[in-house]
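U., I forgot to send this yesterday:
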Amino acid sequence: MTKQFLGLAIVLAVAAFATPVLAERSRGLSADESPAYNSIFVEGGGPGLLYSLNYERVVEEDFGLRVGVSYVSFSASAGSSSASATILAVPVIFSYLGLRGGNHMLELGGGATGIYASGAGSGGAFAASGSGMMALGTALIGYRRQPVDGGFQFRIGLEALAGKGLAFSNPDPTKFGVLPWLYMSLGVAM
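Result:
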């Protein structure tokens, strides 16, 4: 399943980067008249879990496709014991942006986040390590301020992360759960 998810993420990323001219052609706008279709932003929380750096392409004025990346590494030690963990997250989100007035819009989206995690620990005569991949589903609703002619972009909202092992209390790694999560981002639309 992770190979299929990775393949889908690559196809969606290629589609986002390969279609810049299509949206302008379909509306008959010249490059000077076209509104801001690309954005780059840093997001706290959200589908990237702790944070993510994202690129989004708006297609047909009402739909956005974004790809992001997040990398976090932790380590700790005490005496002769040590532990470390690394998490790489790649969110791919499709959003509907058709409910808007000027610079303000309601964002409705869904997608998936591919996650690779690895960890290692040692203490005394014992050592262990492990790694693995998983995918989380995500749905989001939020407010977005994005000027039509480009400039500062602001987003804030609520999302639901869905997948195995998600829960506020007593997470069971074998059970499917949904976890509410907040996000806020700052960036630039071009």
